[in-house]
Amino acid sequence: MEAKYLNLLSEKFNSEEKVVTEIINLESILDLPKGTEHFVSDLHGEFQAFQHVLRNGSGNVRVKIRDVFKDRLTEDEISEFAALVYYPEDKLKLVKNQVGSREALNEWYKIKIHHMIELISFASSKYTRSKLRKALPKQFVYIIEELLYKSDEDTNKKPYYEKIVDKIITLGQAEKLIIGLSYTTQRLVVDHLHVVGDIYDRGPEPDKIMDTLIDYHSLDIQWGNHDVLWIGAYAGSKVCLANILRICARYDNLDIIEDAYGINLRPLLNLAEKYYEDNPAFHPKQHSEKALTEQEKLQITKIHQAIAIIQFKLESPIIKRRPYFEMEERLVLEKVDYDKQEITVYGETYPLEHTCFSTVDPEDPVKLLEEEEEVIDKLLLSLQQSEKLKRHMNFLMKKGSLYLKYNGNLLIHGCIPVDEDGNMEQMEIDGNIYEGRELLNQFENHLRKAFKDIESTDDLSTDLVWYLWTGKHSSLFGKRAMTTFERYFIKDKASHKEEKNPYYHLREDVDVCRKMLEEFNLDPEQGHIINGHTPVKEIDGENPIKADGKMIVIDGGFSKAYQKTTGIAGYTLLYNSYGMQLVAHQHFNSKKNVLLNGADALSVRRIVDEELQRKKIRDTNIGARLQEEIEMLQALMSYRYIN
Ligand SMILES: O=P(O)(O)OC[C@H]1O[C@](O)(COP(=O)(O)O)[C@@H](O)[C@@H]1O
Ligand SMILES: [Mn+2]
């Protein structure tokens, strides 16, 4: 290594002892078991269900509790303890109301603190002390370490520890400590989180998911098609913006726009009131928990139509200025016969119903009315000025990518576009042809470019973000075309069908999966592809583990709207030092149910892969980085200290 780097390094490690200590420290980390990775996808705004999965570590918290206490606690007591670890603040409130006397409460605190210390001691056994320290509640680090490193056999010390706990209780700190210890436990059971796309759309609280992720200790995100739609809107794409508003109206989630992100919808509402009436094709899908008045429903129906028509109009100029997007079939407003009220798409003619074309001029159907133009411009400005959205989008960019290679696996939301023979599909962008990994890299570069320059609204990069949402070679969409127009206005369901990329049947084949792993320079023997995006229809017997375990699809439908088709409430994947396990979750009822009845419908686990030998940090991405650091330190050692 070059002397100048070694000199720089020697500033930090300025004695032989420091170098030796660091080498030994790093070497010992390499031999620890690998940390647990937790994979989730397709959260679709379902914050309550997501936070439950996060708090219980996909059932991992309960597994650890059972490992430690199975001979001492009943199943009910285990459930009760688990509920405390998941929702400490709420559980403490409940207990205080139930317990009769101060003495009984203090006794309860004492037992729980001891149990929690025991649990943490077990759950942290594969971490270094310094890593554990970082996970402890700051104000109690010293005390907890004292409690953790006691040895039970050491009877001399026992009274001392009893005293510490008693003192904590008499000083009124028990609750704070229990809350802190609960969050430490949650944090210890999962070392790193992967969010394999689609945080946004359909569900009511994507902003709360984003806030939770921002506070999370270690994670990465693979963007989903819905996430790039939001990124696109923020990056200046008006058509992406029209789409996110349309979806929010469709799912009765305009609160996200108005209340969560502070974007003023008044101009859109005024336009909608002026031009639109009631229309059953545009009624919002209603949440069971939120009853709308007729008046509210009508208002949303009008907004829904106004923004859908703006969306269709905005698509046309992009399709025309980017012929290599090959989307001419989607020039829908121009394919309508306005006299006959019918449309010809993909060679078929269909009658139209529920039309709402009052702002459409048959002579120039894609021309925006001045009012429409004004509305979308105002909305874009307001969106780009939302501080909260800016924070969330910046975080998505910082932690996100289109795909990720991590510990030998390939994580990607949608697909790798291929043809029927499994060959990488080619796409032209601006005169150059790309395929496979190269194509995905191009998409990502353009997305980052669009995000850097939010003032530009019609440049290639911004158009490509929209292409990622809906284009036929998009690795996130994975279908040939989006039939939004048909689904609103054509009765015949045959026209609604969205043909999938051949990837979706070819991925059942081991050899195809191997080839794809190779395309990304991953070892086909060791690696897996992990996908979200397409709901696995467990109800129809579909298996999320495909191609002999090389392919794992974890979209089981956190999204309430899709649970009817999947039959479950989402999959998550755990990958610890013993191997990979897929977890199928039951429908998440409510936090209240967990707290009161310990109902935490135990998730069903299926082994994907079992390691023959327990995997160590040495075998991971982080291990490779540590090994490089060790080599550098060794070079420093010979350069400076050994002669
Ligand atoms: O269920 P909705 O709201 O009609 O949305 C359907 C649209 O969503 C998509 O499935 C994309 O969303 P997903 O990524 O969740 O699949 C489109 O292909 C389809 O046109
Ligand atoms: Mn998706």
UniProtKB/TrEMBL annotation:
Pathway: Carbohydrate biosynthesis; gluconeogenesis
Key word Thylakoid present: no
Entry annotated with the keyword Translocase: no
Catalyses which reaction(s): beta-D-fructose 1,6-bisphosphate + H2O = beta-D-fructose 6-phosphate + phosphate
The enzyme's E.C. designation: 3.1.3.11
Pfam families per UniProt: FBPase_2 (PF06874)
InterPro entries referenced in this protein's UniProt entry, alphabetically: FBPtase_class3, Metallo-depent_PP-like
Cofactor(s) named in the record: Mn(2+)
Alphabetical UniProt keywords: Carbohydrate metabolism, Hydrolase, Manganese
Similarity comment text for this entry: Belongs to the FBPase class 3 family.
Protein name (record): Fructose-1,6-bisphosphatase class 3
Source species of the chain: Salinicoccus bachuensis
